[in-house]
Amino acid sequence: MSRERRSPAPPDTATLRAGLTPAQASAIATLEVFGWELRFVRRPLFRDPVPVLYDKSGSRWIVVDGDGALDENPGFEIRE
After folding, report:
1. N or C: which end of the chain has fewer CB within 10 A?
2. Spatial separation of the C-alpha atoms in residues 49 and 64, rounded to whole Å
3. In whole angstroms, what separates CA 43 from the centre of its chain?
4. pTM attached to this predicted model
5. Nearest to 41 by CA among 10, 72, 1
6. How many other CB atoms sit within 10 Å of the CB of residue 76?
7. What is the spatial distance between Cα 19 and Cα 43, in angstroms, rounded to a whole number?
């Protein structure tokens, strides 16, 4: 019998937002007004979560630091 190869369903926004700092949640809400979309959250051990948002076209992405600051060059690459 073959293994299931389909990707799991993407998590809902409440699950993605769980554990974000208040500053991150506020910044994300503001960005969503301008068409940015929260796609996923990296959760490194012993550090603030790292939410990743994409613009409307899906060509640009940014992260929101723990203090709510936007970072266009976070020091890691994203596989497409």
Report:
1. N
2. 9
3. 10
4. 0.82
5. 10
6. 9
7. 9
